[in-house]
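Input/output pair, single chain:
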Amino acid sequence: MNVKKYIFYFLSFLILLIFCETILRTVTTFPLSNGSITTYDNDLQYKVKKNISKNIDTYGFRNIKNKKNNYEIAAIGDSHTFGWNAPFNKSWPYLLERETNKAVYNFGTGSYSIYQYYFLAVENLKKNKKIIIHLGPSNDFFEIRKFSKNSNFWVKENKDLDLKIFSNIYKDKDNNFETKLEKNFVKNIKIFLRDNIAIISFFDHYFWNNFLTKLKKIKKKEEYIFLSEELGYLSINRINNLKRNIDLNEVSVKNNLQNFEKFLNKLRLLSKKNQIMFSIYPTRESLYYKYLIEQNQLINEKYSSIMTKEIEFEKLVINLIHQYGFNVVNSRNYMMEEFKKAKNKKKFFPDKDHPNYVGYQVYVKTILENIIFFNK
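Output:
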């Protein structure tokens, strides 16, 4: 009797889970996926696994089926282009297509850098496509993955442009970045469950991350900077990572910036006028910093110093792009306008990195400033 009762309870619970899973998938955007379930690729280092979800095409990018056969504009970038934190139809490449009636293919993939952008740009120039490179200066000049000598493309470019990419990989003091990337099996299982099961994704997004953040703040207050009642706390580790990403005293970052300049020169030679444009997006931390200045708030000295350097680095990158004759737009001002309107400032960046739907709309609004790019 007890066995039948337990079986009944188990089946009832299972049916409830299936019901909740179905409802979440039907009426919400869960499960959210940041494209972190990847497979190896000689040229790109990695891609999202084919058909890991219904919105990942057979090439490993977030697009509808057969989009690769018919598009005008290549949208190239990282998770901000992929559309992390937003459903498929609210990523900026999708919104841009809707605004312009021009077919846009989304090449965005989490943690891609200037190297993947360059490869994808060259490949799309061969097809005579227009190209938008959505660049985050504070994220995209820091590379920790190895390039493959099995890639004919990178072997040739490394030699022709003197990139030194097979040795130019940042390693931390413990030399453990590659170990984390290649061997963390348990972490990959957790990511897989979060990215593919709506219930787990929902719980992780709204409860677990908040719980861990609060727990860390209680246990280790010295690891956080208090900004204001409106903005809350900021992780010192987070801003230290941003400092590392733009530190021109770090050899690999300096080399990556030099390589970027070589890419710009090569792309200029390969492309027609107004065939490539760049779109710049700011970090949450630098937006917070500008907002605090406008509000005349007292700002932590360490935080202020790093944000000043970050904004200077952004200007350096933009000046380089201009120097090689490419149009570039920056979403910072529009993003600030919308951020100031937000009643709950903390929810403007739900996962502390990517913006909400309003932010993705801002990216499109900014890109559309470059009217010449969209003229035939």
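The mean pLDDT is 87. The domain at 31-374 is CATH 3.40.50.1110 (Rossmann fold).
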